[in-house]
Amino acid sequence: MGRYTQEFKSEAIALATKSYRTHQEIALDLGINPSTFRNWMSEAMMTDNSKSNKTTKKSQADLEKELLAMKKELAFRQEEIEILKKAAAYFAKNQK
Q: Is residue 66 part of a domain?
């Protein structure tokens, strides 16, 4: 087990994501070996990526359902427009 708590690691990573300073500067200021800090950052990025992949898969399924619903709605509205065009043409023709 390492000598740094998970809370310390999380706070250090949060500091790095909010700061304009280099990871090396932050690591040295916190008394951490820069290579250790780079490892923490790499692990954090991999964890974030796997979380976003799960979210993306779920979101993609929702988006596909929404797309299907929108396509049905579009087809319905296009039919309405065609009916209204025919009605407008009919009434315009009969007004003369």
A: yes
Over residues 75-96, mean pLDDT: 92
Please report which residue ranges of the chain form alpha helices under DSSP H: 6-18, 23-30, 34-95
Question: Which of 11, 21, 19, 2 lies closest to 44, judged by CA?
Answer: 11
Using only C-alpha atoms, the chain has a radius of gyration, in whole angstroms, of 29
pLDDT digits (tens, 9 = 90+) for 12-35: 888 888 888 888 888 888 889 989
Confidence of residue 47 (pLDDT cuts 50, 70, 90): confident
* pTM reported for the whole predicted model: 0.49
Phi, psi of 13 (to 5 degrees): -65, -40
Rounded-to-integer distance, Cα 18 and Cα 16, Å:
5
Q: How many domains does the chain have?
A: 1
